[in-house]
Amino acid sequence: ISVHPINGKVKGGSLDVHPTEKALIVQYEVEATILGETGDEMLGDRKKCQKIIRLKSLNTNTDVAALARKVVEECKLIHPSKLSEVEQLLFYLQNRKKASGKEKRVVKPRDLTPFEGMEIDEEANINKVEEYVELLYEGMEEKVKGATLILHLARNPVNLEELLENETALGALARVLREDWKQSVELATTIIYVFFCFSSFSQFHGLVTHYKIGALCMNVMEHELKRYDLWQDELQKKTRTYILHFRKEHEKAFKKYQGLLVKQEQLLRVALYLLLNLAEDTRTELKMRNKNIVHMLVKTLDRENEELLVLVVSFLKKLSIFLENKNDMAEVDTVERLSRLVPCEHEDLLNITLRLLLNLSFDTGLRIKMVQVGLLPKLTSLLGDENHKQMAMCILYHISVDDRFKSMFAYTDCIPQLMKMLFEHGEERIDAELISFCINLAANKKNAQLICEGNGLKMLMKRALKLKDPLLMKMIRNISQHDGPPKHLFIDYVGDLAAQITPDENEEYVIECLGTLANLTIADLDWELVLKEYNLVPYFKDRLKPGSAEDDLILEVVIMIGTVSMDDSCAAMLAKSGIIPAIIELLNAQQEDDEFVCQIVYVFYQMVFHQATREVIIKETQAPAYLIDLMHDKNAEIRKVCDNTLDIIAEYDEEWGRKTQREKFRWHNSQWLEMVESRQMEEGEPFMYGEDGEMDRPDLFYSTDGITPASGAVSPDFFSDPYAQNGDGQHGYDSETNFNTLKHY
């Protein structure tokens, strides 16, 4: 066998500073050549490599020139001629300022920083992997050294494919981790870090799964969290003892605890990063959930290490998009633990925490917890922070959806900040989140009063009318619904709002303008003048035709007619215009829509109040007949308005009064009457009460207040029957009970 000698050359390359650490990066090239028997080059290969020289001792007082000489002497890859360049780079590192906290930094898997214990004097070489593997079979110190050398290789992505082909090395690492992870935190951290390097690339996830590293990491996390609880208990016991007697011993114990905590959090951080990478596959994520990953992560939120917390909260945020995981978070005190992180100085941590809270805020129960733990004022304070106001506003919007919490915003500085944001937009379109939030808050009376303070309403009206913004007008409409001072401020804008109600305007915008006007139930307002000046009656008649516009717009027209009908002269004008038949026609078309029916019946209720329109309703339309049909509607509000309207009609028209009483009698006793009729049909008996029956005896009918004799005296037995008053024909009466009831009357 002929042996071909290998000739290796190392060529020095460029120098640069590390982007985040106090370190120099040396780029160099390794050239390997296989020589023939005659000394000629047969085969050659080149590989680009880099070495990181970390400078832990570098600070503001360091002698840069002396340090540069030391670096050049100890690192053979740097030629002595580059001494001045090294000195310049060290001077730059010495004076480089830390990145501003306002700069957004996206947390990436490769951002995992080196940890204490990774430093090693020996330079790792891909060709010596077998030697490093052999170290894994030695004592604990040798195992740590071998794993660390392999880790240095794995941190360079170029080496991963070659390491992948070395099943012996990976198998040995997995075995050592499985057997010895409890014996050495450094060893466990280093080996998991090796597999983390593979997990940073999706194509290598199969390899990590094959060696069951994910399951091992879950076991490591569970074990370390239990150890942490034990440390805490032990420290508390020692604290109570030492503070009383031995101060120095207490400081020593605490220092030891701090050292253990640093190493443990390094291990947790590497293990969690690896699991986060593997969780890209939802099936793997489900396995983690089954092993209680959510509870372990929430438990880790108590730590103070900000880099670890960024990772934990990022993981929880990823998990929170699935309902099952969100429910797991709701079972434990997730929101309570997150609340201490809002606000915090670490920008990345605050940002990711707000994003997690936003995901959780879709759950009603978790929104309640957010308010209970005092997040409302904390989030409100973030509205002034340009970096976080969007996230904070979205969470606050979700909280404002619940009517129970709307009033709480009045006791913060939220509303002044929102009003400032609204007016800062100028003529630009307002952000959807901002205007939606304002719409919700305006639905509360106290908030509405704060919004209107100063020139608030005037500025809102000016902007809404100028830009014809339907969402801004919706906010104004919500303000107008509250009785008291805010409503009376709208008197100055009735004309402006009425002028917007034209066929040419955008329907959504007109709906909000109509809704705002319909809310203005103010006694002193001359609606007749408004309708005439802005020629609104023809517009109303056109829009009342079924299909003439969107249902929402037609409904607002009906509500508006109900409001203006409070004015007797205005009601008379509407009646003469022939609008009542149009309303009845609309009632026929929309009889399945409870909202339409209720509002139309309310229009009839308003009109029968006034003598001029009462005659038209009773004599010239079929409105009373429709009202009688609706007396027993399944909707309680419709029944209530119908009863009140028919009461008024009965007072002024005896014929409709008798018809109403007859219908109420028939409905109340429907089951008894059906039973009697069916028995007569079967037995051929004559009518029990004669041919005319009881239907011609008005003393047996009941009024709207209950069943009363003609004299008006109410039978006490009526009030003892809980079903007699509500006219509910669905209750089952036996024949004897109904018969006795009728006999008593």
From TrEMBL:
Q: Which GO terms describe its molecular function?
A: kinesin binding
| SMART domains the record matches | ARM, KAP
Q: Which GO terms describe its cellular component?
A: axoneme; ciliary transition zone; kinesin II complex
What residue range is the signal peptide? none
Q: Where are the ARM repeats?
A: 578-622
Do you know which InterPro entries this protein is assigned to?
A: ARM-like, ARM-type_fold, Armadillo, KAP3
What's one Pfam family the UniProt record gives for this protein? KAP
Superkingdom of this entry's organism?
A: Eukaryota
| An example Gene Ontology biological process | cilium organization
Q: Cite the PANTHER family for this sequence.
A: KINESIN-ASSOCIATED PROTEIN 3 (PTHR15605:SF2), KINESIN-ASSOCIATED PROTEINS (PTHR15605)
Put simply, this protein is called: Kinesin-associated protein 3b
